[in-house]
Here is the input.
Amino acid sequence: MSPPPEELLKIGSTALKQCNYHQAIQALEAFCQRASPDTPGYTQAQMWLVRAYKGNGNSAPAIALCPISVMVNSKSISPSI
Here is the structure.
């Protein structure tokens, strides 16, 4: 049985801080697959995934995630006029 989403986010964060990019990618991908964009931590997980992919030398998935993160972030930010 796999850890709950909150635990996956914590595992991914810890692994990223330790430069264990492979473990970070596994945990954060699992979190993002289970969570919806409205889930707390989802946007942060996407940004951490970009860093983990880049740290792992795999920039193609990192680049692919960037537009998704921007779209999710723009929905949660209300412009101040």
Summary: Residues 59-76 form the longest helix (18 residues). The CA atoms of residues 2 and 76 lie 29 Å apart. The chain is about 75% helix and 0% strand.
